[in-house]
Write a structure and sequence with these properties.
Helix content is 53%, strand content 6%. It has 351 residues and is mainly alpha-helical. It has a single domain, classed as Cytochrome p450 (Orthogonal Bundle). The protein has a two-stranded antiparallel ribbon. It has a two-stranded antiparallel sheet with strand order 2-3. The chain has a two-stranded antiparallel sheet with strand order 5-6. A hairpin with a 6-residue loop joins strand 2 and strand 3. Helix 4 packs antiparallel against helix 7, helix 8 runs antiparallel to helix 10 and helix 10 crosses helix 13. The longest helix has 32 residues. It is globular. The protein binds protoporphyrin IX containing FE. Protoporphyrin IX containing FE (HEM) binds next to helix 10 and helix 15. May be involved in the metabolism of insect hormones and in the breakdown of synthetic insecticides. This is Cytochrome P450.
């Protein structure tokens, strides 16, 4: 899986998959995202919900947060190799991967029959599976081949769904922001009532709202790196030795009042000029930074925006008595997953 690969193997894999997320590929995917806008799942779910929902829900059950999956994730991300070996852990869980293998075969079949709606990722995985050179160099067997699309599923699915849930939650609590955003959405569709890739990308207030959500609720709240050569931090006598694992507390940056005044408040306007935060060093990087920056960033932002645009066109979002005043996170996983349900009222708007 690319997430866990290093060096040349990572570089080669990354280059292949980057081609699935270019502007022209995103533009091609737009009608699919748009048609599933109200459900807001990545392409894979579009297939599995329609064609084989049992497999989908089995995968969901197998990757749902549990104490076991929490320990597994922590061991992998914090490089506790001895524990990984001692507990014979696999990442992802074997059961989840087995279910996913079924779904993957199903998708390949659909794409081969010409029924596939998004075949980019499947095409790339299939091309790697048929590339003798790559197979030999990186022992790329069936298991690894299934691991790649599975990785996109785990890296992309929960992050998008969580971000959307937090966006709707904050919009329900902040009616002025909600109404301003709805005005922008309506204005963009005054001509023919339809959304396009360009219209969604052109929504400036939408961009500010989504960035503010990424600040308050970064789905992955830290970054991890391994130091590849001894490095002395400029102006100090602190040296980070080669091989040290470095963790960057992104969530801490996002709630630092010296960078973001009144950090507990939801204020999309603070992102009217996003680049100000990274002018003198990196301060805001919800998708990471450098060569390992999230490969799905543009896809994720597009998907979230399409969903929000559809939802606000059709519904007024309101908090209910059971809506949490503040979101609490589950301690079972290292990503920011809410502890309990976020209940909201979707009041239909007159057409
Ligand atoms: C709101 C949604 C998302 C957020 C906030 C997010 C955030 C991140 C972050 C912080 C990283 C680590 C970057 C670094 O270390 O510098 C990452 C890596 C990654 N993300 Fe995302 N992500 C999201 C959605 C997605 C989606 C939709 C996909 C795929 C379709 C995806 C695929 C990946 C992959 C493959 C990596 C590893 C890249 C590599 O190691 O080269 N992510 N993401």
């Amino acid at each position: 899986m690319m997430l866990l690969q290093k060096g040349k193997e990572w570089k080669e894999t990354r280059e292949k998959f980057t081609t699935a997320f270019t502007s022209s590929k995103l533009r091609q995917m737009f009608p699919v995202l748009d048609s599933y806008g109200e459900k807001t799942f990545v392409g894979i779910e579009a297939y599995s919900l329609e064609e084989d929902s049992e497999v989908y829900w089995k995968i969901k059950a197998a990757i749902a947060p549990t104490y076991e999956s929490g320990v597994r994730g922590i061991c992998y991300f914090f490089k506790l190799q001895t524990l990984v070996e001692w507990m014979k852990l696999t990442f992802p869980q074997r059961a989840a991967l087995d279910y996913f293998a079924d779904a993957f075969q199903h998708l390949v079949k659909l794409c081969q029959e010409g029924n596939g709606k998004i075949s980019n990722l499947i095409d790339i995985v299939s091309s790697l599976k048929n590339n003798d050179n790559y197979i030999k160099k990186y022992a790329y067997g069936d298991r690894k081949a299934v691991g790649q699309p599975f990785m996109f599923f785990i890296a992309g699915e929960n992050t998008i769904i969580m971000s959307l849930a937090y966006t709707l939650y904050e919009l329900a609590k902040h009616r002025r922001v909600q109404s301003k955003l709805r005005d922008e959405i309506r204005e963009a569709t005054l001509d023919d009532g339809a959304f396009t890739y360009e219209k969604i990308l052109g929504m400036k207030y939408m961009e500010m709202v989504v960035q503010e959500i990424m600040r308050m609720y970064p789905p992955l709240p830290f970054l991890d790196r391994e130091c590849t050569k001894d490095y002395t931090i400029r102006g100090t006598d602190v040296t980070i030795s080669k091989g040290t694992q470095v963790y960057v507390p992104m969530l801490g940056f996002n709630f630092d009042k010296n960078i973001f005044p009144e950090p507990e408040k939801f204020i999309p306007e603070r992102f009217a000029n996003k680049s100000q935060y990274n002018q003198n060093g990196m301060r805001f990087f919800p998708f990471g930074e450098g060569p390992r920056i999230c490969i799905g960033e543009r896809f994720a932002l597009l998907d979230i925006k399409v969903a929000v645009a559809h939802i606000l066109t059709n519904f007024e979002l309101e908090p209910l008595p059971d809506t949490p005043k503040k979101v609490e996170y589950t301690p079972l996983v290292f990503s920011l997953v809410p502890k309990g349900p976020i209940i909201l009222n979707f009041k239909p708007l007159a057409a």
